[in-house]
Automatic annotation (TrEMBL):
GO terms for molecular function: alcohol dehydrogenase (NAD+) activity; zinc ion binding. It comes from Amycolatopsis taiwanensis. Belongs to the zinc-containing alcohol dehydrogenase family. The keyword Ribosomal protein does not apply. Its cofactor is Zn(2+). PROSITE patterns: ADH_ZINC. It comes from the Bacteria. This is Probable alcohol dehydrogenase AdhA. Its EC number is 1.1.1.1. InterPro entries: ADH-like_C, ADH-like_N, ADH_Zn_CS, ADH_Zn_typ-2, ER, GroES-like_sf, NAD(P)-bd_dom_sf.
Length: 333
């Protein structure tokens, strides 16, 4: 098979990120072997390749928005059959017994592992996944459309929950890429009024086309105070203006796994009147189930830019330079 490996993370001019030919993996006990048909290109992959995240598995194959076909079952697997279309997402395993797992917060499990970081992911022709962490996928979507749902969609959904948006409330979205354009559609379907703040003119047009009430520059004040906001752009400088845009009691949820440094905050301007700042850490399988069920019941418009597997480096470069419209997706099958 063909697979991309991050042999030396770093900036484009110094990193070693190579496409190699090698034997396909075999499923271990409790695992599925999946022929990859599409894999989304997530900003977290960029953080892995560029070294923003510490190395967990040397030479790892990135990619955690994987849509594929089951071709082999490991020992002890039940509930799946060859030919099933399944999804592989970021969360790969948890311990199941720690206090976080027991209370339903498996995303905080200190022993959790992640696809494309701790284990090889979907920038390849084949991938494995523990069957307990494989996802059933909704009908009515192409492989390319499904891929971004498996992280961008799920994380956007969790970020929306963390933002504590009240029914019919006003939501601000900072940055409008793969995750944001899906979270916005969920919020709109739930009756929210959505205001988008992003530097990309194409993204602002997409936001308005999807039904946003307004779209302006990333640091611009929204037309009215916000009940909740989500920061998708990994830019700490946007935290103060996003907090200042909140109405009394509003919440800002930061959706990314990586964020540049946050400038000093002024208590009276940014936090007083019970404004809240929250982070988002991974997701639970319940989050994934709820979001994928929602996607099956509400046809989401998934905007994608396709790349062949051998152009994964170009896809990451385009993502880093804001040249991707919607979500970048590698097409392998």
């Amino acid at each position: 098979m063909h697979a991309w490996h991050v042999d030396r993370p770093g900036p484009a001019e110094t990193r070693k990120f190579e496409l190699r030919e090698e034997p396909a993996p075999r499923p271990g006990p409790g695992e599925l072997l999946v022929r990859v048909r599409a894999c989304g290109v997530c900003r977290t992959d960029l953080h892995v390749v560029e070294g923003d995240l510490p190395v967990h598995r040397p030479g790892v194959v990135p990619g955690h928005e994987v849509v594929g076909e089951v071709i082999e079952l490991g020992a002890g697997v039940a509930g799946f059959a060859g030919g099933d279309r399944v999804g592989i997402a970021w969360l790969r395993s948890t311990c199941g017994v720690c206090r976080y797992c027991r209370r339903g917060a498996e995303n905080l499990c200190p022993y959790s592992t992640y696809t494309g970081w701790d284990a090889d992911g979907g920038y390849a022709d084949f991938a494995t996944v523990p069957a307990a962490y494989a996802h059933r996928l909704p009908e009515g979507y192409s492989d390319a459309e499904l891929a971004p749902l498996l992280c961008a969609g799920i994380i956007g959904y969790r970020a929306l929950q963390r933002s504590a948006l009240p029914p019919g409330g006003r939501l601000g979205i900072y940055g409008f890429g793969a995750s944001a354009h899906l979270a916005a559609q969920v919020a709109l379907a739930q009756g929210a009024e959505v205001h988008v703040l992003t530097r990309d003119p194409r993204a602002r047009r997409l936001a308005l086309d999807l039904g946003a009430a307004s779209a302006a520059g990333a640091a611009a004040p929204p037309p009215e105070p916000l009940d909740a906001a989500i920061l998708f752009a990994p830019v700490g400088d946007l935290v103060p203006p996003a907090l200042a845009a909140l109405d009394r009691g509003g919440t800002l949820a930061v959706a990314g796994i990586h964020l540049t440094d946050i400038p000093s905050l002024n208590y009276q301007e940014h936090l007083f009147q019970e404004r809240q700042l929250r982070s988002v850490t991974a997701n639970t399988r319940q989050d994934a189930h709820e979001f994928l069920t929602f996607a099956g019941e509400h046809r989401l418009q998934v905007v994608t830019t396709p790349y062949s597997l051998d152009r994964a480096d170009a896809a990451l470069a385009d993502l880093a330079n804001d040249r991707v419209h919607g979500a970048a997706v590698l097409i392998t099958g």
